Amino acid sequence: ITATELEGFMNIKRSVISHYLNMLFKEGKLLKTDSRPVRFYLPLKNMPIDDNKNKKSDVFKKLIGFNGSLKTQVDQCRSAVIYPPRGLPILISGSSGVGKSYLAYLIYEYALTMGVINEKAPFIELNCADYANNPELLSSVLFGHVKGAFTGAEKEKKGLMDEADGGYLFLDEVHRLSFENQEKLFIYLDKGKFR
Fold this sequence. Notes:
With 195 residues, the protein is mainly α. The chain is 40% helix and 9% strand.
């Protein structure tokens, strides 16, 4: 079991659970894996570790270099996904064509297999470069709008932030956002609110 899984059963923070699990490990009462997330298990004789859950959850094996040149980055992605209480925002950078979109989808798959998000949670991708010349429209697409907010806004519309709630929103070419939209996005990431 992982500290995060135990947190779901108990009303105790993951960090406290992790501390006690590691104390039990040091006392020899539990064993643990070297994988991320760390799994703790009872040391029963003649009973092998059921590592099927780890194998199932290692969607990153599809990524070339997952256990070599990209090992550090993959470990950081795993940690960001399971970071309590709901994971951390992830910024993926790299040259064009290196597989950032593919990595973003693998991160989403990892979150699904780890039970961090609901199995019906969405993965929504938006290419911000499509809106680089129209920052107001991008703001509407991301955050939604109410009827009459601008010419042509004939009805209220949810933004992608709402549609992706509980899942993942991948903003490709995020550097193409206007400064105003970047600020709105950062406030949303920091405080979970937008105006």
